Amino acid sequence: MKSLPLFYFTCFVFIANFVSCFSQENATRDHSITTTKDSLLNNWFQKDYLQDGIPGISLNKWYGQNTTKQKKKDIIVAVIDTQIDLKHEDLLGQIWTNTKEINNNGIDDDNNGYVDDVNGWNFAGTKSGGYIVWGNFEFVRIIREWNSRFKDKKENQIASNELYDYREYQRALQLFETRNADYKNWLENQKYSILTYPIARDSLKHYFPKEDYTYKQLDSLYNKYKINDKTYRQRREDKDYDIGAMVGFLKRKFDLNENTLEDIIETKIQVDSIVNKNLNLNFNEREALGDNAYDLQKGYGNNLVSNNKVGHRKIQDHCTKVSGIIAANRNNDFGINGISEMVKIMPLNISYSGDEHDKDIAMAIYYAVDNGAKVINMSFGKEFSLHKKWVIDAYKYAEKHDVLLVHAAGNNSFNVDENPYYPSDVDYENPDEVVENFITVGSISQKIDSNFVSEFSNYGKKNVDLFAPGDKIYTTTAGNSYVYDSGTSLATPMVSGTAALIWSYFPKLTAKEVKQIILESGTAYEIEVLIPGGEGKKAKFSELSKSGKVLNIYNAMQLAEKVSKK
């Protein structure tokens, strides 16, 4: 889905929710071209620590020096996310195959409860062979589910054992009111923009007959011809069409990366769907699945993890980006290099525009564990959790089976110790960690200065474990192409790939040991940084996560070898 800039971040994080986290990517324009490996030697995050003054994770150093150690086994990494581009050139041979299942025979050959699950499972797939594109935000689900318990009630009317839910309900109501107003205003802006864009372009033809103006030229022209300092909304409501207003309009479109009428129409379609589906209390995407949303059982979804069904919006970008960082082929002459050689990606689809459903999160974790995954990557998130016990029970199941969970810290620019962000290894009602096999990852940029922490990244001394590069990362994307993108969604697979790399050489280590190795071996940076969303406030980088460190693969592999020998 087309990315919108940080200028509109409050709304943008939901549109780019394919994290949802996606909620929530902060992407640049698509550079969708096949490239040679040599042209990507400047993919900054793979460089050595402080090489060229860059905070790299020393991946190249590890591979450069590791010429004799023998890999022991392939590691399966489950990527719980959107659909994936199975035909991407740099992921061919890197996708997990269920060898116990015969493809498309309509039989559950391995009796695991999933028919024809050759490459994974689509928990957002419908029985008719389609898939969910738009779903509710979690705060909408909470309002709909809990209206019967709390609507129009005051806190002094609530029993003590229901107070936490009541306060969550109130928080959901407040967010609903804010988001609903924001998106409806945005929708009006897009309707206005569709009408105004042709007029604005015609207005500038006198100054730029070839329509080859730059943002700098528009800014200069705006300062010359503007007749007032009205806001964009005021000009929209007053129907201003003077030359200053039209230049200001096109400046705004530049800011939003809407450079054609088609771009504006596409954004309008997305925002309209958010207003009428994601935010609609009477819309429930589970009806299309035909499952019982209150019953944690199998029997729904389909096996189409890379579905190009006619009439459906494609949603394969996010998982393809994440998977490329972990597992892109290191032995071909094109594209990018993934973190780990000995890895197979198990795609498990639960994400769409809106928030992932707790049932799907839990069921995907159970599937991953039962089918051999050693690492589970979760580059998505949300601010509420309706059935968090289901998800926590799934964590415990993964912990019991020695599986590592790696989760994105989120792109809301807030402190997750104070602002709930799910899924999490704390339930916020009882804030102690519930498992020891869970890593939460924030994002850094390539600037070792006050802008070291990505401006969008969440943080937390207690609930974020460490940071990894997540800013302007070059990776695979849908349509057999490549793209630069940013977000904690892309920092997370750096850690998942590292865990897989460790296990491929040292398979006897436990999930708890691998977690501690990754955290303890990170690089410390003794600098003050701007706190994301902190309006200019600074803090020591070490205070923004539990470890106070940044992922370092070389150090992690060295420490893993020492721990393994013990």
How does this structure look, described?
The chain has 566 residues and is α/β, with parallel strands linked by helices. It has 15 helices and 14 strands. The protein has helices at 9-15, 59-65, 138-150, 163-204, 215-225, 232-238, 243-255, 261-278, 286-289, 317-327, 358-370, 388-400, 488-505, 511-520, 553-565, and strands spanning 20-23, 75-81, 121-122, 343-349, 375-378, 404-408, 438-444, 466-469, 473-477, 481-485, 523-524, 528-530, 538-540, 549-550. The strands form four sheets. The protein has a seven-stranded parallel sheet with strand order 3-4-2-5-6-7-8, sandwiched between helices. Strands 9-10 form a two-stranded antiparallel ribbon. The protein has a two-stranded antiparallel ribbon with strand order 11-14. Strand 9 and strand 10 (481-485) form a beta hairpin. Helix 10 runs parallel beside helix 13 (488-505) and helix 14 (511-520) packs across helix 15.
